[in-house]
Structures are given as structure tokens and as C-alpha cells.
Design a protein that fits this description.
Structural class: alpha+beta
Oligomer: single chain
CATH topology of the largest domain: PH-domain like
CATH class of the largest domain: Mainly Beta
CATH architecture of the largest domain: Roll
Radius of gyration: 24 Å
Number of helices: 6
Number of domains: 2
Helix content: 25-40%
Strand order of the largest sheet: 2-3-4-5-6
Strand content: 15-25%
Largest sheet: 5 strands, antiparallel
Length: 231
């Protein structure tokens, strides 16, 4: 991160080594690079649950995905980060049961009371739906070629940012606090040499595993460049 920023708790800086080997002899034809899976997730079963916050090799496709590009990880904010709005939604849902204890409410006709209660539940449903969509569609994707950050603002507007793996310069993950430690989630800061200088994967599960995957991909890209391989 930049030097002028305040230090973060439990900051761990994970930097890939620059070591690589070059075994290609002059005049040998270049081979197309096979689609490899990082060792840290190679033995994990693909995640089938579409509502998981940490999906390994999910069978999904996104809008800008290339034909032979392979999704390695898809992440969302940890499920526990939804607790605040879930509790608010639960509180809003039980409020109509207490309307009768408000003297002014009883002065209105029964038809008006029913309409008001229906509108209240409609508002509560909209609140739940909005927050669920925001959690579900704000995703962070790691493929064998790049990282993708999808910021979902509404059904009509979203922002998609991406950069190639070989543009990544630094990977740092931050954890801290009882809740993050207990549920194993944190934020990953990725500095790049691309147009977008920094990507933040916020409150994602298993940040150490994600950082490890990114570093394995960076090392693979460096080795490809040294050996002259192409995709």
C-alpha cells in the first residue's frame, strides 16, 4: 500500500518471489500454455452452491469472459457481513404487530389500517430484496488470466473493472478483530500497473487462501514470460 496511509491491524504482505526457470532452447516452436489450476485449489471440489461467498472453480460464465478463460475463484462479502441488515429487516417485519398499541393508529378505519400494514410489508420486502441483490451481485472473480471486480449499484447500473494477472505488483491482505478472526474473513488489497491502480476485495472469506492463489498465478505468468510460452 501507499506509505502515507495509516497502518492496518494484522497486515500481512504477501509478495511472490522473482525466481523462475528458462528451459526453452532457441529455435524450438512455442507451445500454447495449458489451462492450469493453482496448486492451492487444485484438489478442492468445485463449489456447487450458487449462494456461497467463496466458490472454487464454479461452473459459471460472466459477460466479458473469453472462450478459453477459466474461473478459478468467485467471491462475495462473507455471509456474516449481512447480519446487520438481516436484523434490521427482522425488526421491521415485527413492527406491524405493535401498531394496535399506538392510540392514533386505532382512530383510522380498518381499511386504512390494512393498506398501511401492506405498504409497510412491501417496504420491508423491498429493503430485503435490495440488500440481497447488492450482496449477491457484488462479486470478485479470479480467472487464470485476470482479476475482475463487479460493483453492482442497481438493476440498471453496474461497474466492471479488470486487469491482467501480469499487471499485479503487490498483494496484501488485512484481518483483525474478533469477528473477522472467528469467521476467517478480511480485505485483500491488490496494487497493479494497469489503468486501475488498486483493487480491493472487501470482507471476503479465507483472505490468506485468496492471496496464495493470486501469487501462484503471478509466478506462473512470470515463468511463461521467461520460457516464451503463449496462451
Amino acid at each position: 500500500m501507499m506509505d502515507n496511509q495509516a497502518p492496518r491491524p494484522d497486515r500481512q504482505d504477501v509478495r511472490p518471489s522473482k525466481q523462475g526457470t528458462s528451459g526453452q532452447e532457441p529455435g524450438v516452436l512455442q507451445q500454447v500454455h495449458p489451462l492450469l489450476t493453482p496448486e492451492s485449489v487444485a484438489n478442492e471440489k468445485p463449489t456447487g452452491n450458487p449462494f456461497s461467498a467463496y466458490m472454487v472453480r464454479p461452473k459459471i460464465r460472466f459477460e466479458t469472459q473469453d472462450r478459453e478463460e477459466k474461473v478459478i475463484l468467485l467471491m462475495r462479502r462473507h455471509v456474516v457481513t449481512n447480519l446487520r441488515w438481516i436484523l434490521i429487516a427482522a425488526f421491521l417485519s415485527v413492527i406491524p404487530a405493535f401498531f394496535e398499541f399506538f392510540p392514533l393508529f386505532g382512530l383510522f378505519p380498518a381499511r386504512f389500517q390494512i393498506i398501511f400494514a401492506a405498504m409497510w410489508y412491501l417496504f420491508t420486502t423491498a429493503y430485503i430484496f435490495e440488500h440481497f441483490l447488492s450482496w449477491y451481485y457484488n462479486v470478485y472473480i479470479i480467472t487464470d488470466e485476470r482479476i475482475v471486480d463487479v460493483d453492482f449499484y442497481s438493476i440498471l447500473y453496474k461497474k466492471v473493472s479488470d486487469t491482467k494477472i501480469d499487471n499485479i505488483q503487490d498483494v496484501t491482505f488485512v484481518t483483525g478483530g474478533a469477528l473477522r478472526t472467528l469467521f476467517d474473513y478480511g480485505t485483500i488489497y491488490i496494487q497493479t500497473a494497469g489503468e486501475m491502480r488498486e483493487f480491493d476485495f472487501e470482507e471476503v472469506p479465507h483472505p490468506d487462501r485468496v492471496a496464495k492463489v493470486l501469487n501462484e498465478l503471478i509466478l506462473e505468468e512470470e515463468q511463461e514470460r521467461l520460457e516464451g510460452r503463449v496462451r
